[in-house]
Design brief:
Family: Belongs to the ABC transporter superfamily. UvrA family.
Main location: cytoplasm
Organism: Peribacillus huizhouensis
Distance between the termini: 47 Å
Radius of gyration: 32 Å
Keywords: ATP-binding, Cytoplasm, DNA damage, DNA excision, DNA repair, DNA-binding, Excision nuclease, Metal-binding, Nucleotide-binding, Repeat, Zinc, Zinc-finger
Bound molecules: adenosine-5'-diphosphate, zinc ion
Oligomer: single chain
CATH class of the largest domain: Alpha Beta
Number of strands: 25
CATH superfamily of the largest domain: P-loop containing nucleotide triphosphate hydrolases
Helix content: 25-40%
CATH architecture of the largest domain: 3-Layer(aba) Sandwich
Structural class: alpha/beta
Subcellular location: Cytoplasm
Length: about 750
């Protein structure tokens, strides 16, 4: 009996492509799910295990609370037992514009505020008075935003133009508004003379108004004759009417109009902290709370250790372990104030994990989705230590991973397969590393790196001169054209700063394949995403004489019962949500009329059910064949034309994006970690795609940690030596073969891989 409790029991799993999968997952172990992209890993881990655990957790709450919580549908499975609460650590986090900082995300800031409120000298009040959003704590000048907006004459005035020609680019002060007309007719200013030709004194009067203490009359003409009016100067007027005032109540001016002729700058009163001078006067050992926020974490740790007051020491001791955690993960150079959205992928990944390590809960199932993403092989070792620590705190660690180092440390490996999509959905192996054979993962583990011994000749370069955005140290670099280039280096070394910012700014024609998703509309399918659907509808229309819209489930072809959704979701209060296939159309989303027409013996639904592999032979139209072939090239031959893009696995999405970019004939392709979500075997296919692109004369540059890609490149550029401040330099440029004689971190791992 007690033995059963130590395992999560799953029987008859059928979500997506799963074929009646049975699994026993041991608790308090590290379990790695691996297998080709699309084999069914997420369907087991996220769509069955995590969803059922969350669903059952919610069942523990009373109805009236449950009503406000997310509702989860019961996964398609016969039995799911012995689950524990799950914590999912997602792969990519938090949108780039998120306001959260390292300090808020790690929950360290409340402790720091408490500390200042108790032992800061002079202390001013309660912990919440140290918040820039509080009525006491906010800076009076910038209202807590930390930034002020100041008018910028160079943006507001076109000195080559006259007033009548709209020299003033801010609409309410231009001839479009009464104020602009007043300026032209008051007799002080020549409305037809370019501003640059005004004598110095006139120009100063126009822009800044009369000298202090003087008054200048600028009559305002009404139908009752001129009225006396003082001229105050464009700049003072603009500041008084549009900056020092809540303009949201004015008509015809928006915040954006004002910002367009202004510059934002750091608030001079609070230096960007958003805090009141009284709050900033409160110090501990000479430092105020804004300084604490800006300190590098290593320095912050030292400051906290200096605190000897017993109450202060007690509070500091609460914060220290969290900060230590970050420092130990190599993030000591960050500060509490750093915005989460500006962290590099690998940095963000580690902050997320650190947050969970600080937790004292146990008997949790932690689920990590490819935690090695964005990490250099060297950093993967750190990651593994952390996973082991989470397990040691009596938790179950489930990891979806392709990284071989992580696979090697698993207590138990579960490989899904044998293929992807309809060819997958089974457990092909469960057990220890030693027993793994005859599978894609076994092959990958035995695979030795193949160094490219015949790199292509380099004839020309893209040149980037002296860049210093983010951590880059004023570097210049030549990136070879028309070959395959890998850009590598530890996380935070500056790869994205160099390529995604500096390079794309200089070479805007670059086709960027980044990491974002592709939208979650469940009306978008492979066929619509690739632009094939329009051609298919056109064929049907031509063949049948019916309007093309009849062959779309988004318009007139939609089933009238489900409105083209294919499913119905009856909303029963308090009950679990259920989705049932629409009986009227049998889930096809189409109306009977649309289905009654055929092209080459198939109706529209039968065509959308074709796999990519089948579609290549079915269609005779070159334009369609070309697009379908691109999908096959990136290894998606097993998907159907009609599969929704929202249902694709991460690795499939990544490749679909690539395919859609491949059909635009570009010349420079830049890819951010294309191996993400892909198994070693998938990577080989992708590499072929890149080689073909280069053979056709394109330049392909990839940001990658994966050694298979690096070894196969024609040229490698490594940034480093460390992350953050310690990075930002080019530490290696050369062929993979030359790397075998180099001493950098990546070179070390490459040498290891060929042994
Ligand atoms: P993995 O995590 O191994 O990459 P997934 O479990 O995400 O794979 O997906 C397994 C297969 O099931 C993929 O081919 C995917 O396209 C397919 N799939 C996922 N969701 C749906 C769905 N709602 N409808 C149809 N197919 C789906
Ligand atoms: P990589 O791509 O090599 O992982 P990045 O180029 O993303 O590294 O980041 C290089 C360094 O610059 C990192 O320490 C990162 O935190 C920092 N950085 C990136 N963006 C910003 C930003 N907007 N503000 C401040 N620092 C940044
Ligand atoms: Zn301020
Ligand atoms: Zn229907």
């Amino acid at each position: 009996m007690s033995e059963i409790k130590d395992e999560i029991i799953l029987r008859g799993l059928k979500e997506h492509n799963l074929r009646n999968v049975d699994l026993n997952i041991p608790k308090e172990k590290i379990i790695v799910f691996t297998g080709l992209s699309g084999s069914g890993k997420s369907s087991v881990v996220f769509d069955t295990l995590a969803r059922e655990s969350r669903r059952q957790m919610i069942l523990n709450y009373p109805h009236y609370v449950r009503y406000q919580m997310p509702r989860y549908e019961r996964p398609d499975a016969d039995l799911m037992q012995n689950l524990s609460p799950v914590v999912v650590v997602e792969q990519r986090l938090i949108g780039g514009n998120s306001r959260s900082t390292v300090g808020t995300y790690m929950d360290i800031n409340p402790l720091i505020r408490l500390l200042f409120s108790r032992i800061g000298k002079p202390s001013i009040g309660t912990a919440s008075d140290f918040l820039s959003q509080s009525s006491f704590g906010r800076c009076p000048e910038c209202s807590g935003f930390g930034e002020v907006i100041a008018p910028d004459l160079n943006k507001m005035i076109d000195y080559d133009k006259s007033l009548r020609d709209y020299a003033v680019k801010f609409k309410p002060l231009s001839p479009s508004g009464w104020q602009g007309n007043w300026m032209m007719t008051c007799g002080l200013f020549d409305p037809d003379k370019p501003i640059k030709d005004y004598p110095e004194e006139k120009r100063r009067l126009l822009l800044y108004g009369p000298p202090e203490g003087e008054k200048v009359n600028a009559p305002f003409h009404t139908k009752n004759g001129p009225q006396k009016h003082d001229w105050d100067g464009l700049l003072p007027r603009f500041t008084r009417l549009y900056i020092n005032r809540d303009i949201s109540k004015l008509k015809g001016v928006t915040q954006d109009d004002v910002i367009a002729v202004s510059t934002r700058s750091l608030c001079p009163t609070c230096q960007g902290s958003g805090l009141n001078p009284k709050v900033l006067a409160c110090r501990i050992n000479g430092l105020n709370i804004a300084a604490y926020d800006q300190l590098e974490l290593t320095e912050l740790l030292e400051e906290l250790k200096k605190i000897k007051d017993p109450l202060g020491e007690y509070i500091a001791l609460q914060a220290i372990p969290h900060i230590k955690q970050l420092v130990e993960m190599g993030l000591g150079y960050l500060s509490l104030s750093r915005k989460m959205g500006t962290l590099s992928g690998g940095e963000a990944q580690r902050v997320k994990i650190a947050r969970h390590l600080g937790s004292s809960l146990n008997n949790i199932t932690y689920i990590f989705d490819e935690p090695s993403a964005g990490l250099h092989p060297e950093e993967v070792d750190l990651l593994i230590q952390m996973l082991k620590r989470i397990k040691a705190q009596h938790n179950t660690v489930i990891v979806i991973e392709h990284n071989l180092s992580v696979i090697k440390v698993a207590d138990e490996i579960i490989e899904m397969g044998p293929g992807a999509g309809v060819n997958g959905g089974e457990v092909v192996y469960q057990g220890k590393l030693q027993g793994l054979k005859d599978s894609p993962t076994a092959t990958a583990l035995n695979h030795k790196l193949k160094i490219n011994k015949n790199p292509r000749d380099i004839k020309d370069y893209f040149t980037i001169n002296r860049v210093s955005n983010n951590n880059l140290k004023n570097i210049s670099v030549n990136i070879p054209k028309n070959v395959l280039v890998s850009m590598c280096g530890v996380s935070g070394s500056g790869k994205s700063s160099l390529m995604l910012e500096a390079f794309t700014k200089r070479y805007p024609e670059t086709i960027m394949v980044g990491q974002g998703g592709i939208g979650i509309s469940n009306r978008s399918t492979l066929a619509t995403y690739m632009g094939i659907m329009d051609d298919i509808r056109a064929i049907f229309s031509k063949e049948t004489g019916q309007p093309a819209g009849l062959f779309s489930f988004n318009t007139s072809g939609a089933c009238s019962i489900c409105k083209g959704k294919g499913v119905l979701t009856p909303d029963v209060a308090f009950a679990d949500p259920v989705t049932i296939p629409c009986e009227a159309c049998g889930g096809t989303r189409y109306s009977d009329e649309a289905l009654s027409y055929r092209y080459q013996d198939k109706n529209i639904v039968e065509i959308l059910d074709l796999t990519i592999d089948e579609a290549i032979h079915y269609f005779k139209i070159p334009k369609i064949i070309k697009r379908v072939q691109t999908l096959k090239d990136v290894g998606l031959g097993y998907l159907t034309l009609g599969q929704t893009t929202s249902s694709l696995s991460g690795g499939e999405t990544q490749r679909l994006k690539l395919a859609s970019h491949l059909q635009k004939e570009g010349q420079i392709y830049l890819l951010d970690e294309p191996s993400l979500g892909l198994h070693t075997e998938d990577n080989e296919k992708l590499l072929d795609v890149f080689q073909n692109l280069v053979n056709r004369g394109n330049s392909v540059i990839i940001i990658e940690h994966n050694l298979n890609f690096i070894a196969a490149s024609d040229w490698v550029i490594e940034l480093g030596p460390g992350g953050g401040k310690q990075g930002g330099q080019i530490i290696l440029e050369g062929t993979p073969e030359e790397m075998l004689h180099a001493e950098t971190l990546t070179a070390k791992w490459l040498k290891d891989g060929v042994r």
